[in-house]
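Minimal example, chain plus zinc ion.
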Amino acid sequence: MIRVNRVKGTANVIALQLLDEYGMFYQPNDDAICPCCGKFMRGPVSRHAKSRWVAGYVCSQCGLMEALEDAGLLDAVPLSEWAYVRDWRNGHSWLWF
Ligand SMILES: [Zn+2]
């Protein structure tokens, strides 16, 4: 499976867990932030792209990049380098309670 191939190494396994948790439980249904690039996604997330790699949605541009990565036309950005994971690593949580 593609998803398994993409998640090599401990950093990416941890990143996948973080991203899945965010997408499944914390990503807002409206006006969310793309966990890949960190850009604001105006309107319902269902207008944007369902991620091929993680639970939840990414912006249309990152969705296109995922498709090109999936087709082998682009090198995949490691999950550990996604904006959500970088911010988490730097102590900046996206979760507001
Ligand atoms: Zn994005």
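The radius of gyration is 13 Å. The mean pLDDT is 90.
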